[in-house]
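R.M. (postdoc): so does anyone remember the format we settled on? I'll just put the structure tokens first.
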């Protein structure tokens, strides 16, 4: 699939820019939505509502916590963002290439894991259960992260 830059008001806009992504989904480009989407895109991490709010405030882009929550829920509903449930608060990450997640039961840290690393496991699950994961399907692997140890 070609990812050609799009022209937007006289400038080149890459497809992953928050403004372009929101417009593709027919959402208004409010400052709060743009800031939240830009933060998640730049961080490459899965953040909770509180972590998202704290990062925005630290960067001087204060957004009301309720706006952060509503924005993350809206972005999840349209598929730009996905939610990972685990111990503690829900963590949100950018939806992109299919991937799975590891979740620390101690601290709740979420890490993405490329689907290609678990191809055989997913095929075996399908063979054993008959469940065919769709494009948004994700395995959640729970345990303890390296920081939390045994």
């Amino acid at each position: 699939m070609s990812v050609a830059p799009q022209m937007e008001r006289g400038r080149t806009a890459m497809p992953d820019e928050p403004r372009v992504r929101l417009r593709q989904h027919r959402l208004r480009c409010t400052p709060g939505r743009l800031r939240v989407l830009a933060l998640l895109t730049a961080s490459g991490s899965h953040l909770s509502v509180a972590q998202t709010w704290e990062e925005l405030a630290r960067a001087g882009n204060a957004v009301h916590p309720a706006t952060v929550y509503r924005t993350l829920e809206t972005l999840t509903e349209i598929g730009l963002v996905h939610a990972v449930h685990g111990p503690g608060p829900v963590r949100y990450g950018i939806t992109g290439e299919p991937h799975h997640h590891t979740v620390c039961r101690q601290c709740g840290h979420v890490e993405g894991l490329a689907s290609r690393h678990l191809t055989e496991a997913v095929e075996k699950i399908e063979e054993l259960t008959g469940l065919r994961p769709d494009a948004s399907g994700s395995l959640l692997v729970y345990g303890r992260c390296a920081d939390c140890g045994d």
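R.M.: ...and that's the designed sequence above, right after the tokens. Also worth knowing: The chain is about 35% helix and 20% strand. Residues 31-43 form the longest helix (13 residues).
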